[in-house]
Amino acid sequence: MASIWKLLLLGAGIYVAIMAFVYYKQSSLIFYPNIPGRNLVATPEDIGLGYEDVEFTTRDGIKLHGWFIVNESARGTLLFFHGNAGNISHRLESISIFHELGLNVFIIDYRGYGQSEGKVTEKGTYRDAEAAWKYLTETRNIAADQIIIFGRSLGASIAAWLASRHTPAALIVESSFSSVPSMAKRIYPFLPVHWLASFKYDTSRYIANISCPVLVAHSKNDEIIPFAEGLQVFEAAPEAKQFLEMRGGHNDGFLVSRSIYVAGLGSFILENLE
């Protein structure tokens, strides 16, 4: 009997240790600003596109960095929020696609990423998004109905949050999770993740409160964020909404599905930018 109690106590100790690890390491499990690195490895000039280096400041005093890539025949402007790893210089293929689709592109690095100052937090990323919106609408005087907000992976949640507070021409969310607790439940089904999760990124709740058209894009082959998560986001969105099913993995689906992807986004953009 004593040995059974020892085993039970050992099991309980291991379980508590796992919970403590997940709780205290949440930030490092969500944000990867140093993978593959914070240095900019290329610029839009490397793919033949002119650009402007942009610095702007959040309301809590953090200086952020981004690029504004001009399209001389632009029908509108895309505000681009990237995923949880790397920086803006790792998104040149996407920038090229959106330029091809006839858009100016404004892409930013969150605080703690790339050349942006500060340390990344959930609240901080929302402040960064608000500052980027303010830069476009106030500094560059771009009308809200000429801006499409785009987010991929973690950036999709940030994009949905911003679109729930403003009224852009449209919102595009790609490879998105429903919320951090939803994803955590899939990864750690044996843990009480709703109690442990200090990060929310509640994409489904944000998207339920938007008042613009939305396109949700996701791949059935996504090995990081399950297809079911993207469907949850789509189901939460109000009308008018569209779903674009892609092929390929989480990080290369838009390239593997390039022809379908470009056609689907192009049609959606054309519908929503006069």
Key terms:
single chain, 274 residues, alpha/beta, Rossmann fold, globular
Describe this entry's structure for a reader.
This protein is of the alpha/beta class and 274 residues long. It folds into two domains: 1-30; 33-272, Rossmann fold. It is built from eleven helices and eight strands. It has helices spanning 2-24, 26-30, 92-100, 122-139, 154-163, 180-187, 193-196, 203-207, 227-236, 253-256, 258-272; strands spanning 52-57, 63-69, 76-81, 103-108, 147-152, 170-174, 214-219, 241-246. An eight-stranded mixed sheet has the order 1-2-4-3-5-6-7-8, with helices on both faces. Helix 4 (122-139) crosses helix 5 (154-163). The radius of gyration is 20 Å and the shape is globular. The model has no long low-confidence stretch (mean pLDDT 92).
